[in-house]
Amino acid sequence: MGYFRSLLRSFKWILASFAALIFAGNLSASDIASDFSAANRFYAQGKFPEAARAYETILQTGATSPALLFNYGNAEFKSGHLGKAIAAYQRAGQLSPRDAELRANLAFARNQVQGVTLRESRWKSWVGALTLNEGAVLTAVLFWLTFGLLIVRQLRPALIPKLKSATRIFAVLAIFSGAVLGLQAANHFSNASAVVVADNVTARSGPFDDAQSAFTARDGAELSVLSRRDDWVQVADATGKTGWLPVKQVEILPGA
Fold this sequence. Notes:
five-stranded antiparallel sheet; two-stranded antiparallel sheet
């Protein structure tokens, strides 16, 4: 009996802890919703810098969503911060790549950038039509459908003629989806980009303040990331010029 009483006490402790975690999570979600509403009120009142700071505070808690990033991007754009707006739109686009309004705002903000900036290639735009998670799920579904059809053909040989075309189609789709997923993963993990979030920054020939100037970039310019060293990032602009920028002057994003 003593063993069962001890087990029961342990179970009650675990249940109480679990309930506390759920309550804390709900409380946190309620706080975030309240802060989000407050930030939206700032925006509706035309207090765009205040709205941007309020949205940014929410993001700093680790909370994120396409709507939060979209609103944050709008507030930064209205505040005259092109780079921060573009970075926010891009981060939102990685969560919701087919949102037409989001893509329109990103394109509009990009058109306001002065000077040289990278442009998204068509193949990256096409590959990025799905999120990385969506691509992985689609590939897995197609693979298992193909595998299931092969199993059915082994168990019921009489169905082979009827299932032959379907098996071939799903196999080709699975291979194609897997190839696209590979491109997505390579772009996401290997092709980081940097968005300039300050005006008229100077990229230097080395990762130190007194190095020779290599090129200048304007607020909102998008650059390719080549490498990082301490508080510096090596970047390349659309013309192929390379240089080093302080990390605090850019926002680094993974590939789409």
